[in-house]
Specification:
Elements (H helix, E strand, L loop, with lengths): L2 H22 L4 E3 L11 H10 L6 E3 L1 H4 L2 H11 L3 E2 L7 E4 L24 E5 L8 E4 L7 E3 L8 H10 L6 E6 L2 E5 L4 E3 L3
Parallel strand pairs: 2-3, 2-4, 4-5, 5-8
Antiparallel strand pairs: 1-9, 6-7, 6-10, 8-9
């Protein structure tokens, strides 16, 4: 194995481990090294795609990312994943701006028999700061604060509706700089009183 192949395999394994850790501990962040990819695809988003996608997991790109043909070429070359134009056909959807997350109903929600046939959104945000929401659910001891910006104004409503679909629904992975966090469909947002 060449040094480059070894480094690529190690980076892919680290990205997979980081996203699994974040999914198991919703709202917590992990640090991850990125890989070189065409902008505006963030290096850490690229590392996640390289680790998670393959020829059997179609990827959807939002309008900003789809406008750069080199991004689709990079994904196809690195992973073999097909690029789809319909969000509902995607296993992974890449969103360049957290404020512009499309309606969750645009994506595959899975079915009662096959809840795993849903879309995972990988969302680029500016940071993990700002007003926090409080989470509960599997993987959270009591409660967990989570904040990311920017997000849509109706984000908490979307998450509550997503949770009502459980075991169906979408999962979200957020990327900010070298940090990632995940909100699986199993989390609940605690209503502030």
């Amino acid at each position: 194995m060449t040094a480059l192949a070894f480094e690529t395999a190690f980076a892919s394994q680290a990205a997979f481990r980081a996203v699994m850790d974040c999914t198991a501990r919703p709202g917590e962040t992990r640090t991850l090294d990125g890989v070189v990819a065409p902008a505006p695809l963030a290096p850490v988003t690229a590392a996640l795609v390289q680790s998670l996608a393959d020829y059997d997991s179609p990827v959807w790109l939002d309008a900003v990312l789809a406008a750069v043909p080199a991004i689709a070429d990079w994904i196809r070359f690195q992973t073999g994943a097909p690029i789809v134009t319909e969000p509902r056909e995607a296993v992974f959807a890449l969103i360049s701006n957290g404020r512009a997350i499309p309606d969750f109903n645009s994506f595959a929600q899975g079915s009662e028999e096959y809840p795993d046939r849903s879309t995972t959104l990988i969302v680029q945000v500016e940071g993990f700061a700002g007003p926090a929401i409080t989470l509960t659910g599997p993987g959270i001891k009591s409660t967990q604060a989570f904040s990311a910006h920017p997000l849509p104004d109706d984000f908490t409503v979307r998450m509550a509706n997503n949770r009502e679909l459980f075991p169906r629904g979408i999962d979200l992975v957020f990327v900010a700089g070298h940090r990632i966090a995940a909100l699986p469909r199993s989390v609940r947002i605690v209503e502030e009183r």
